[in-house]
């Protein structure tokens, strides 16, 4: 299959009806798959009402069919077609954080969306992205778009057009270029099928940000360390680059061992560069240990870069202290590292 590429970055205001938009809409109306930019990561979109189209998403990604997808919308009214009455609390959070990097799992009303999109569950995850181009597409096509991250299953999520192209060129109808995703980590997934709500996947909208809007609305009970994964996706190996990665905790001293560092990368904040052995490769994760937004933005781009660099056969990545705003990045790093942690003083 020839994968068509659109570059919509030239538009800075409303993207009016034009040839590209018409083409994109027609492809979605005809079972097609198109990767679109969002502020978190690129998504692989299809018409969420169309069983055939949604099944093709699972196939193109090599994704297990019991792992449900997130439905993307342009305006809130769209969700009333496929959900039962929402509580005041859910609506309040949607109004506070949308458009933006948070998905809500809400009760599913059968009959409007196709069956595969929810992987057979009676709930559905929904999100309204803020990315200018992604939003304009959702508005123009005027349909709910099911979109998991636009990577092959098991690979790091794509934050650039090139990442999508690498994984999915030839497997899908098209890719829309929209520059590097600003956030860089997948959205927070908030399970709202019970109260207090539970964070099924941490993201840049944190527990304390949610609780600032509704105090006491998020339980920590059974969240991230829970045996049974809350989001079905959490049980699958995820986000892992091919290059072995280990998390480096308390990196405060210069390594004492005489290891051969020639093929090792240190992915650490710039203010720790002076601790990186000269023969090793330094990759800047962010400016300093408080620069979490930048670290989120860069992480997947760096993981992709590791696999492209033949000189690197091992990497250490800086482990942040676990806090409200580092929960998401540490969750992704732990998966990329297969839970492997090394202490700085043991190097
Ligand atoms: O930022 C994002 O969320 C990106 C962009 C494209 O929007 N999308 C994304 O989708 O990360 P995906 O499919 O890679 O991750 C969706 C996660 C999975 O872990 C899935 O198991 C969980 O959300 N999920 C979806 N629907 C669910 C449901 N009804 N109940 C529990 N978990 C659900
Ligand atoms: Mg994904």
TrEMBL record:
GO MF terms, alphabetically ordered: ATP binding; double-stranded RNA binding; L-threonylcarbamoyladenylate synthase; tRNA binding
GO BP term, example: regulation of translational fidelity
Species of the source: Staphylococcus edaphicus
Claim: Nucleotide-binding is one of the keywords in the record: yes
Native organism taxonomy: Bacteria, Bacillati, Bacillota, Bacilli, Bacillales
Designated name of the protein: Threonylcarbamoyl-AMP synthase
Family affiliation: Belongs to the SUA5 family.
Uppermost EC category: transferase
YrdC-like domain ranges (all copies): 18-205
Positions bound to ATP: 63, 67, 149, 157, 201, 239
């Amino acid at each position: 299959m020839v994968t068509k590429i659109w570059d919509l970055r030239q538009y800075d205001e409303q993207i009016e009806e034009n040839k590209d938009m018409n083409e994109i809409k027609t492809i979605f109306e005809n079972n097609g798959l198109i990767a679109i930019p969002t502020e978190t990561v690129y998504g692989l979109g299809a018409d969420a009402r169309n069983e055939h189209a949604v099944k093709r998403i699972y196939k193109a990604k090599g994704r297990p069919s019991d792992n449900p997808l997130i439905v993307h919308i342009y305006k809130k009214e769209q969700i009333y077609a496929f959900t039962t009455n929402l509580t005041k609390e859910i609506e309040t959070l949607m109004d506070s954080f949308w458009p933006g990097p948070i998905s809500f799992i809400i009760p599913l009303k059968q009959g409007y969306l196709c069956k595969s999109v929810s992987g057979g569950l009676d709930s559905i995850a929904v999100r309204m992205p803020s990315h200018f181009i992604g939003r304009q597409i959702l508005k123009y096509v005027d349909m709910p778009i099911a979109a998991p991250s636009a990577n092959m299953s098991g690979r790091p999520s794509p934050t650039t057009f090139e990442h999508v192209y690498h994984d999915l060129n030839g497997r899908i109808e098209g890719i829309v270029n929209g520059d590097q995703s600003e956030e860089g980590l997948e959205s927070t997934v908030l399970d709202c099928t019970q109260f207090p709500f539970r964070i099924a996947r941490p993201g840049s909208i944190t527990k304390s940000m949610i609780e600032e809007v509704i105090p006491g609305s998020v339980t920590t009970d059974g969240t991230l360390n829970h045996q049974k994964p809350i989001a079905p996706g959490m049980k699958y190996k995820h986000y892992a680059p091919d290059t072995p990665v280990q998390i480096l905790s308390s990196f405060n001293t210069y390594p004492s061992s005489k290891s051969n560092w020639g093929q090792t990368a240190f992915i650490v904040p710039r203010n720790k560069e002076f601790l990186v052995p000269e023969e090793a490769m330094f990759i800047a994760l962010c400016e300093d240990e408080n620069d979490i937004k930048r670290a989120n933005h860069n992480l997947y781009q760096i993981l992709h870069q590791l696999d492209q660099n033949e000189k690197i056969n091992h990497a250490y990545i800086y482990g942040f202290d676990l806090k409200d705003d580092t929960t998401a990045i540490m969750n992704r790093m732990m998966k990329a590292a297969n839970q492997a942690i090394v202490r700085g003083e043991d190097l």
